[in-house]
Specification:
Length: 120
Amino acid sequence: MALRLGAVVLDCPDPAALAEFYAAVLGRQVAPHDAGGGWVDVPDPEGGPSVSFQLDPAFRPPTWPEGERPQMLHLDIVVTDLDAEHERVVGLGARLVDDTHATFRVYLDPAGHPFCLCAC
């Protein structure tokens, strides 16, 4: 049996809002969903894994890079123009937390999950 990764799922307090953020970052569309539901998908139009968002009313963001709640995972988003994409994701609501590396920058999404823009 062949296996494939279907989705990466992030817990959050507002799945619809975080799905809109990542859809804009990735240039994708949010899949139709029940507005009152606790799950929203941002599918890959090329058939790769979806990025999905699950309601967790008690969600507390990681205290990355240190603290009581370490990051459990992060997303690496490959870009060709790090400076241009930096401006775009910050304009969408990301917060820059580390720009000390030449080929990648670390951000927090609006719910506090870390992600990287990588020009590697």
